[in-house]
Description:
Blueprint: H1 3-13, E1 29-32, H2 38-50, E2 56-59, E3 62-67, H3 83-93, E4 105-111, E5 117-120, E6 129-135, E7 139-144, E8 149-153, E9 156-159, H4 164-167, E10 168-174, E11 179-183, H5 185-188, E12 191-194, E13 199-201, H6 209-212, E14 219-221, E15 225-231, H7 240-243
Antiparallel strand pairs: 1-11, 2-3, 3-4, 4-15, 5-12, 6-11, 6-15, 7-10, 7-12, 8-9, 13-14
The structure holds 2-oxoglutaric acid and fe (ii) ion (FE2).
InterPro entries: AlkB-like, AlkB-like_sf, ALKBH6, Oxoglu/Fe-dep_dioxygenase_dom
Organism: Sphenodon punctatus
Keywords: Dioxygenase, Iron, Metal-binding, Nucleus, Oxidoreductase
Amino acid sequence: MDLGTEVEETRAGILAVEPFCVAQTPLATYYIPDFISESEEAYLLQQVYGAPKPKWTQLSGRRLQNWGGLPHPKGMVPERLPTWLQVYAEKITSLGVFGGRSANHVLVNEYRPGEGIMPHEDGPLYFPTVTTINLGSHTCLDFYHPVSRGQQTEGEEVSVPQTEEQRHFLSLLLQPRSLLVVREEMYTRYLHGIRPVASDTVTEKVANRGACGVELGDTLPRGTRVSLTIRHVPKVLKTAVLLGRRK
Ligand SMILES: O=C(O)CCC(=O)C(=O)O
Ligand SMILES: [Fe+2]
């Protein structure tokens, strides 16, 4: 089955989360408050912090754990997800957001107040649906128009100066225990990032503020946030172990 067909199937399967569609987003964003309970949140945080120390990679502005294998253009060498993640990977798969395929990859990110992630695209190694379980603290996920390309002048591309603020068109407030599903254009066309700030103020750009019970002008101090980004990596290598050829 090619990826196009699967994206079509996702469109049909997505009905489970349809009631949670964020109205103001151009396309395909779903925000589900209280997707997990407080005790599930505590359990997941305990598992994240109980992981072996070498599992953490420190980056500037955040640290992360990679589970399921390292996505690679030639294919990911799959690793079995630990049970505590497999349970949630299956729960999210059952929402039909990966077009009949199963979540097989989880990135755990930890951000302290003042930390964030630069605007970026997640790239072609993932199925174009990303799902995020939010733990510990809220954050504000910002979406940006890509830098628009200028006119061709004598074969040279001139980039039009645009500030990050001008390109920032939408934010989503991600409260602890919520699930975010971002797919299609919101994933493939726009960039996303988290500003490295210690608190967020609710502005008109926060498209899901109605679902979060916050008011314009509210200021929310950030605590330490842990996100579980659960995805499907389509290109997976069959390992010798899976083929039963291990000697
Ligand atoms: O922590 C998040 O919600 C965003 C993480 C992210 O964008 C990524 O890991 O690619
Ligand atoms: Fe990302």
